[in-house]
Design brief:
The chain has helices at about 40-45, 50-55, 60-65, 75-95, 110-120, 130-135, 165-180, 180-195, 200-220, 225, 230-235, 275-285, 290-300, 305-315, 320-325, 330-365, 395-405; strands spanning about 105, 140, 155, 255. By secondary structure, it is an all-alpha fold. Helix 8 (about 180-195) runs antiparallel to helix 9, helix 8 (about 180-195) packs parallel to helix 12 and helix 11 crosses helix 16 (about 330-365).
């Protein structure tokens, strides 16, 4: 089992390829595999039947029948990412098959050991994260079809969970946000290059591109309303994104049999695990509150190792904010502030989404108005009503980072 190593401290200026960041797809895995080599057929067979196995309450018994498979036959980054995707989806289904009140305390050895080994090779935790759920979980229905990433056309997920079209829409709209960020990621590289030159004209151009990309991300995020039913998201989908850290439903965490005798706690999937906004915050010099910063930095441990290194390299670059302030250039200042405004607006849109899909959906579920078809739980989930799936106190966190973003504006 092997993975391509990410360079720990590449020299500036930045080069995206050093960090396994694609010129076309950004942090998305450019060409995800859809099948593992033959020895891993038992994993793939279960993975492709997950929605049915979970809703029919058969997944746990099927997992117990899987042979102990060695990870030594996995080769290269793409195979490792697909193995992690498959094992993370099976694991979350295994844990949450019976809902919040029917969780398990032990992940069986035949699942825990290979999941741990693959996770160690990739530098990822052994739990479903944004890197699995979105970055490595997409394919074209027709490989020769249009390259446009559109939920209603030629795009689909590789592995799924209960939730039907809403689950598919949630993953693919999030993927569209990642895709819309790509010009902004490239603008970061251009901006840092311009800081090193220095070249204020190139810096102004990079900031304009960054602001436009963040605006496009907001437009992509709004498509969530078109593709995801709030009742289905809250009552069916959300539990599978939950982790076993800071979760009242699993206060002791999860024991990975054959890995550790003591239970381990990992956060669930969260938008805070996306490298995109971390990269933008570092470039723009946005400083969040102590609590928010601690949570965000912990979420970096859920990013692929090279992407984490990319964010850290941006942090070590010359200060963009200082350059803009010291330049006395009104155009640069205005361009910088457009980036700040666009990023604050994006975070406001995210708050609107969370309000609709969690707060309002939770109230309707309590009142018995939600459609719970397909949910494995006996009743709507409630353990994380006030928290995000990553374990943060969701509204105070989201409003805090939105407000500290706004405070980064440079006064004329």
């Amino acid at each position: 089992m092997e993975a391509r190593e990410g360079t720990e401290e590449p020299p500036l200026p930045l080069a995206l390829t050093r960090f396994q960041v694609s010129e076309e797809f950004g942090f998305l895995l450019p060409q995800p595999l859809t099948e593992l080599p033959a020895p891993y057929g038992p994993w793939m067979e279960i993975a492709h039947q997950l929605p049915h196995l979970i809703t029919s309450h058969q997944l746990r018994s099927r997992v117990h029948q899987v042979p102990q498979l060695s990870t030594q036959h996995l080769r290269g980054r793409e195979e490792l990412h697909l193995a992690h995707l498959v094992l993370s989806f099976i694991t979350t289904g295994y844990v949450w098959q019976e809902g919040e009140e029917g969780t398990v305390k032990v992940l069986p050895r035949n699942l825990a050991v290979p999941f741990w080994e693959v996770s160690q090779a990739l530098g990822l935790p052994p739990i479903l994260s944004h890197a699995d759920f979105v970055l490595a979980n997409w394919r074209r229905k027709n490989p020769k079809g249009p390259r446009l990433l559109c939920p209603c056309r030629n795009l689909d997920t590789i592995i799924s969970l209960p939730g039907g079209e809403s689950l598919r829409g949630f993953i693919l709209v999030t993927l569209l946000v990642e895709k819309a960020a790509v010009p902004g990621i490239k603008a970061i590289v251009e901006a840092i290059g311009a800081l090193l030159q220095p070249d204020e004209e190139a810096l102004h151009r990079a900031l304009q591109e960054l602001a436009e990309a963040i605006g496009d991300m907001s437009q992509a995020l709004k498509r969530m309303h078109d593709y995801v039913d709030p009742a289905v998201f809250y009552t069916v989908i959300r539990i599978f994104l939950s982790g076993w850290k800071d979760n009242p439903a699993m206060p002791e965490g999860l024991t990975y049999e054959g890995v550790s005798e003591e239970p381990m706690a990992f956060s669930g999937g969260s938008a805070a695990q996306s490298s995109v906004l971390h990269a933008f915050d570092e470039l723009l010099g946005i400083r969040h509150s102590q609590d928010s910063t601690a949570f965000l930095h912990r979420m970096r441990g859920y990013m692929p190792r090279p992407h984490r290194a990319f964010v850290e390299e941006i942090r070590r670059a010359p200060s963009l904010r200082h350059r803009v302030l010291s330049s006395g250039d009104a155009r640069l200042c205005a361009a910088f502030n457009r980036c700040i405004t666009a990023l604050a607006d994006f975070r406001s849109h995210h708050i609107t989404i969370v309000t609709k899909y969690i707060t309002i959906a939770a109230a309707k579920a309590k009142a018995g108005q939600g459609d719970r078809a397909g949910t494995p739980a006996a009743k709507p989930p409630s353990a994380l009503e006030a928290k995000g799936t990553g374990g943060s106190h969701i509204f105070s966190f989201l409003k805090s980072i939105r407000d500290t973003t706004r405070e980064a504006m440079i006064s004329a």
